């Protein structure tokens, strides 16, 4: 039992944590900002779904004047070339020219003699569409020539259908690479913002209580470490809840709209991100609490916390540079070094390049270093929290 309050330590920490949690989540600014962010997340994903759907369904509009025998060849060649076309029958050349000029058609095709055709366009034909037109005209001319020689074009196509090239890639491209990069980027940005923002919340909360002398009243009933851990746990719980909501809404909207087809990977990445947020926040939060205890004015927090801010920014830039190459040497080496592993390991998990052994080993390393940092931060906090006036330097705080 605590000598000061009669509460056992865990109960005292829980009371402080509950107070910190409710103080944060009941702020109107907190609620409004989160609603705005969630609307932005859903809106962005829905917009991405709409625009990607339009891209997938877009077809070049081709008008075909007169004889429609070329229509099937145009459609088949366009599908094979990955540039699908929509063929529309046009009554005469003048109508075709008018529709091209008005932008209703990308190109109008007028068949001529001997298999030749004229392509009417407003300015110039897109190169990919030109490939489709040339291929379709050549295929139609070949079919006509074979028919003239008494060769059945359909039978010939059936007999030569097996003559294809099969690609056996030693290192095949990942068809889901784009989604993995998007997931990795989202993980890096969210962890950077959450750790930095909620770490500063801890520091500001500590110095606010110190500057208003509230801490003296609190420490008359609580031990310094109970107050420290209650604040860290309470504010951390807010950050974890916020990150969970962002992640669930983002992944859910992505899967529902079809933007994310990596459903299982996305949910697994979210769980990994939440776990690494807890580790990363714990590492920095106790240090931010220590920095808050070293100053007596809120305006002095930024300068005292600058080493921590620089370290978090270094982690962010290292992770961001590794998004395109998560298997690179930089990503692999830094992911083993706490606290860099707090951002780089979730990135590697999202990219699908982290082994179970590496994940387990880096978690253990992060826990060991976090415990060590917590001991140092707790000592600084206990020494500095009741010192008013002059800012305590890092050298003084760390001195034995």
From TrEMBL:
Membrane topology according to the record: Multi-pass membrane protein
Chain ranges passing through the membrane: 30-51, 181-207, 227-260, 267-289, 301-321, 333-353, 359-381
InterPro entries assigned: ABC-2_transporter_component, ABC2_TM
Domain ABC-2 type transporter transmembrane residue range list: 28-378
Major location (coarse): membrane
One annotated GO molecular function: ABC-type transporter activity
Pfam families (alphabetical): ABC2_membrane_3
The protein, known as: Integral membrane protein
Phylogenetic placement of the source organism: Bacteria, Bacillati, Actinomycetota, Actinomycetes, Mycobacteriales
């Amino acid at each position: 039992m605590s000598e000061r309050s009669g509460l056992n330590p865990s109960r005292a920490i829980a009371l402080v944590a509950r107070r910190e949690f409710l103080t944060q989540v009941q702020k109107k600014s907190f609620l409004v900002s989160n609603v705005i962010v969630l609307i932005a997340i859903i809106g962005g994903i829905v917009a991405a779904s709409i625009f990607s759907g339009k891209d997938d369904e877009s077809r070049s509009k081709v008008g075909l004047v007169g004889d429609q025998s070329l229509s099937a060849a145009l459609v088949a060649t366009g599908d094979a070339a990955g540039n699908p076309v929509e063929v529309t029958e046009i009554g005469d050349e003048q109508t075709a020219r008018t529709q091209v000029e008005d932008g209703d058609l990308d190109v109008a095709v007028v068949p001529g003699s001997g298999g030749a055709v004229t392509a009417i366009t407003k300015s110039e034909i897109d190169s990919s569409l030109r490939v489709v037109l040339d291929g379709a005209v050549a295929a139609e001319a070949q079919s006509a020539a074979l028919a003239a020689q008494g060769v059945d074009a359909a039978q010939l196509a059936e007999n030569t259908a097996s003559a294809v090239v099969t690609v056996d890639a030693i290192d095949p491209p990942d068809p889901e690479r784009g989604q993995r990069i998007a997931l990795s980027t989202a993980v890096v940005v969210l962890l950077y913002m959450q750790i930095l923002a909620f770490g500063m919340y801890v520091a500001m909360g500590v110095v606010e209580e110190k500057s208003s002398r509230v801490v003296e009243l609190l420490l008359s009933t609580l031990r310094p470490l109970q107050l420290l851990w209650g604040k860290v746990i309470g504010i951390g719980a807010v950050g974890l809840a916020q990150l969970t909501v962002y992640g669930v809404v983002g992944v859910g909207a992505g899967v529902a709209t079809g933007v994310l087809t990596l459903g299982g990977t996305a949910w697994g990445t979210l769980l990994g991100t939440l776990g690494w947020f807890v580790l990363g926040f714990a590492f920095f939060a106790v240090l931010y609490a220590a920095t808050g205890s070293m100053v007596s004015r809120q305006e002095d927090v930024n300068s005292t916390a600058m080493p921590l801010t620089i370290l978090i920014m270094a982690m962010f830039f290292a992770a961001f540079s590794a998004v395109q190459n998560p298997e690179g040497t930089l990503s692999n080496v830094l992911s083993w070094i706490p606290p860099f592993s707090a951002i780089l390991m979730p990135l590697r998990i999202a990219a699908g390049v982290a082994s179970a052994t590496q994940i387990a080993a880096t978690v253990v390393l992060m826990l060991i270093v976090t415990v060590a940092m917590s001991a140092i931060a707790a000592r600084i906090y206990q020494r500095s929290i009741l010192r008013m006036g002059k800012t305590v330097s890092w050298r003084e705080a760390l001195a034995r």
